[in-house]
Structure formats: C-alpha cells, structure tokens
Amino acid sequence: MTVATDRGRTAGTSYLIPAAALLDLQPGLRRCPYRGLDAFREEDAEHFFGREKETQRLLDAVDRHLVVPVVGPSGSGKTSLVRAGALPHLRAAGHTVSEIRPLPGTRASLTLARALAPLLEPDVGVADQERSASKLAALLDSEGGPAAAALGLRLLNRCGPRGHVFFLNQLEETVAAEPATARTLLALVVALAPEAWIKALCRNWSAPYTPAEKRILTDAGADTGSPCP
Question: In this structure, is residue 138 part of a structural domain?
Fold first, then answer.
C-alpha cells in the first residue's frame, strides 16, 4: 500500500506499508465506526466523539436539576448523545442502567413493572419475569405511589453503588398519543424514590438516594428543569 505524505502540486514524498502489516491488523474483524443514519449505541462509545462538551453539560445537568430534557429536531443526535455519550459515563461512575420503552396501548403500571421485573428477579426466566411483572402491575394499579416507593427500596438493594438509571426511550410518542398514560408513568417512576429528588435528561431523570442514587433518563420533552439540546 502506497501512502502520500506531501500535498500540493510539487508533492513527491510517499512511503510503503507492507500488506502483511495491514493483514496483521485484521481489518475484517474490526467493527466499522460509521453508523450511517443509525444512532450511536453504548457499544459505539469509543467511536463517538466531537460532542464532549454536550455530554459533560448533560451529565452536569443530571446532577443539578430535577428534569433535564434533551430536545431537538429529529435526526439531531439526541439518542446518540444519551446512549453513546451519557450512559457509558454513568455506568463508569457506578450506576446501573436499564431502559423503559413505553408501547402503545400498554398500561403505565405494566410498562414500569416489565422494566422492574428483570432487575428485582434477575435469576428467573423470561416467562416467570412476565408473570412477576403482571403481579407488580396489579400492585401498582391498586396502591400507586406507595407500592412504587416500596419497589424503589428493593431496587436500591440491587443497583450499582451510585444507584440506578432508567432510560425512558421515545416517551414523546406516548406523550403525544396517550398523555394520561405518560403522566401516570412519570408519576410512578418518580414515586420509586420517595425520599429522593429525581432528575431527567430528556432522555433522562435522576434521583440521588441515601446511600445510593436513582436516575431516570427520558427522551420526552419536559417543561421543567434545564433543557439540553
């Protein structure tokens, strides 16, 4: 392989890279760093660069504000900023992270219960977790906030040393189509930390709790807190 090192009309210097050296790098086994039109994921964090200031601003906002909406036009990189920017840093800081993705027509209690079941009972199978989620949803439906608070205390015994982060993904779709469901879901999530303050990165909320912290990340636009475009 020949590589030119000079530029311009008078360029004439180049050097050779032996093919064997290139093959030793095993380029076919390396993951392509270009995502095209797809959002960056947590596993792409090593290739996500150029938005360090925005990532730090987002992390700082999570520490300072109750709700931190990440807002912007479609395709502006909100998901990439949260997934490849914020989440890896939160994990490295000692948080555990899981995702809540509301589905159309699903009760808020069941949406939250399905996110909690694998965390509270990680050693059981998927079918058992679904049955557990149904029971948790019924409990949340009947008791609401107090039940969520009790579940939050159970979660704190299983989360990372700095607490747990819930990433509420695509919540704006539920806000637009089923606003009452969105309000109920957010109320239940906030109730998970009864004695804490919960914050949100508009893909994000956070809640420090003694001795740990609980954080909730949501991609819904919110009218409180600090917007982070």
Answer: yes
Cα separation, 81 vs 94, in Å, equals 19
In this prediction the pTM is 0.71
Number of domains in the chain: 1
CA torsion, ordered 178, 179, 184, 189, to nearest 10 deg: 100
- Say how far apart CA 62 and CA 207 lie, in whole Å: 9
8 A C-beta contact, residue 202 and residue 221: yes
Report the C-alpha gap between 83 and 54 in whole angstroms.
13
Residue 97 within any structural domain of the chain: yes
Decide which of 202 and 188 is more confident.
Answer: 188
Decide if 205 is inside a domain. Answer: yes
**Whole-angstrom Cα distance, residue 171 to residue 179?**
10
Residue 35 counted as domain residue: no
pLDDT-above-90 percentage for the chain: 25
For residue 97, list its beta bridge partners.
165
